[in-house]
Amino acid sequence: MNEKVAPRPSNWNLPNALTLLRIVMVPFFIWAFVADKAEYGPLRWVAVVLFVVAIYTDKLDGDIARARGLVTSFGKIADPIADKLLIGSALIMLSAVGELWWWVTIVMLVREVGITLLRFVVIRYGVMAASKGGKLKTVMQTVAIFVFLLPVTPAIPALSVVALIIMLAALAVTVVTGADYLIKAWQLVRSGRGTAASTVGKE
Predict the structure, then answer these.
(1) What's the predicted TM-score (pTM) here?
(2) What is the DSSP string of 114-181?
(3) Residues 102-110: what's their mean pLDDT?
(4) CA neighbours closer than 13 Å in the CB half-sphere of residue 30
(5) C-alpha to C-alpha distance for 98 and 161, rounded to whole angstroms
(6) Rounded distance, CA 187 to CA 194, Å?
(7) DSSP at 8
(8) CA 122 to chain centre
(9) pLDDT digits (tens, 9 = 90+) for 44-68
(10) By the 8 A CB rule, do 91 and 108 touch?
């Protein structure tokens, strides 16, 4: 007796809509930060709120997708991209106003862009979903950026130190997980090529 195969969830679903919303929020977040002109006033608070709401949609879309069985290949690719756009823009702006060392931002961006491109390169062999280490890295980056973004942080040295410590820890996790993704990508490619070779041999 043939078992019924569950239909694949449509890409047009709530989790993916939340992911797209997060992407749309990025320009508004950038505008609020830039318009503040490093005065740490109301617009800086607007940037903080937009950042927090955007990050919350990241958790929300993941929870809904898993609970309702709405995990899609599009979501696996678009979700990390949305995160990188938000976090990457925050890192660049913090460095632009002198609140974060540029070398930290550059290392993180090289890793993020590199892994994103790698996902597309190996997608013919399979989808590389976010790992637990990658999720930990995102959480640590998010917390560090949040503390950096707070308008009161520059006036409180202790908060600046806390933000920097968390960011450096996130940097370490970023580098380690980046190397892990490279290994997984290589294994995925080797596995895919091996399967293809076996199929050809049976023809």
Answers:
(1) 0.81
(2) HHHHHHHHSTTT---PPPHHHHHHHHHHHHHHHHHHSTTGGG-HHHHHHHHHHHHHHHHHHHHHHHHH
(3) 95
(4) 15
(5) 15
(6) 10
(7) P
(8) 18
(9) 999 999 999 999 998 887 778 777 7
(10) yes
Residue length, the chain? 203
pLDDT of residue 79: 82
Tally of CA atoms within 13 A in the half-sphere of 45 that contains its CB: 3
Span between the terminal Cα atoms of the chain, in Å: 28
Mean pLDDT of 151-160: 93
CA angle 63-64-67, nearest 5°? Answer: 85
Q: How confident is the model at residue 128 (pLDDT cuts 50, 70, 90)?
A: low
Decide if pLDDT at 76 tops 60.
yes
> Tokens representing 105?
């931002």
d(CA 201, CA 24): 48
